[in-house]
Amino acid sequence: MTKAKLTKERDLRDSRPLWIDSPRISVRSKRNIAHSRYDTVIVGAGISGALVAQALVKPGKSVLIVDKREPVHGSSIASTAMIQHEIDVPLHKLQTMIGEERANRAWQRSAKAVLKLEDIVRSLDISCSMQRKPALYLSGDELGARGLKTEIEARKKAGIEARFVDKAELKELYGIDRTGAILSDISASANPGQLTAGLLRHVAKQGAEIVSGIEITDMKSFDTEVVLATTEGKLICADNVVFCTGYEFLETVANKKHEIISTWAIASKAGISRPDWLDKHILWEASDPYLYLRTDHDGRLIVGGEDEYNPSAYQSEKKLRSKAKTIRDKVSKLLGFDIGKIDYRWAAAFGSTTTGLPLIGPVLDMPNVYCVMGFGGNGITFSQIAAEIVAAGINGTKDPDAELFEFG
User: Fold this and answer.
1) CATH 3.30.9.10 domain locations along the chain
2) pTM (two decimals)
3) pLDDT for 21-38, tens place per residue?
4) Domain 90-190+257-353 belongs to what topology?
5) Are 284 and 137 in contact (CB under 8 A)?
């Protein structure tokens, strides 16, 4: 095996995300890999790796989670953790791209994933401030009131409930001056650091091994096993390998359908004066670039947006300052009140695809190797879908929706 980096190396986040100061986000990890063979090796100790491990860990099966960073401290900690069933590409537009039946299934699967996440958090008793919230999708320069009504009809036909909020009602109930909005259920918010850490602690108790500070530098796949090499020169054999490496994606699966986008986010001071409805909803808009926002249990307003189709723009300190100010000004104008001083500001990159759907499944021409990438603005929701699809494949079955997200 030739020694080379397997993933496209990137700084997954910049500056200081709000969640980095959360309690209960530390996870015990080892510094050395204990064995030379495992049933499954998961590369990446973020939310995707944690959910995949949770779906796979069972008595008699050895699972190794390895990450070059500390657990939880990659891209997951930079998420705004708006856990939406709504996909970045509106349903009626996705139908024209991949067909009505396939688009409907993708949206339906996304809604089911949010409900499944709620079940997992509840059953494992993970304290991560997970709360069901309706989503308010505002009209903007991409979709006006007419476009939103078209979207509602597509959703209702697919069995996904939504209702139109007209200009007058939007102003009366929310104090927002737009031509309309879609109000829908089956979305939520959470603390992504606590959610990821809680899942990792659970799988560790079930026998999964978590090792940090180890980078996988090379890989060779065979018909019956995969051999991995680390920076220390150690060789690890596995029946299956799953790459959950955020936006440091596998070079072998880089393709024109996938691109890296820069995004920015801010958090206000805790306990800002705000209307009651704001704590009960998540909000985003049909604009490009669009704002997306929510509150947390400390009464902070968390806002993201100003995305750029540039894989390195998020690394600029100058852009971080200017984008943070733009986001603050935009959200203050939208909500009709000054949100006050910014307490946290951060930047990150995320992978996206032309359809807004993630890429999940076996890597072409690499037996027993799986990869998940291209999660767009639905990282946590799509991570749950990825866990279900990958677990099915490794367990010898095929998820009925796997072909919606496959590579190739």
Assistant:
1) 90-190+257-353
2) 0.94
3) 999 999 999 999 999 999
4) D-Amino Acid Oxidase; Chain A, domain 2 (3.30.9)
5) yes
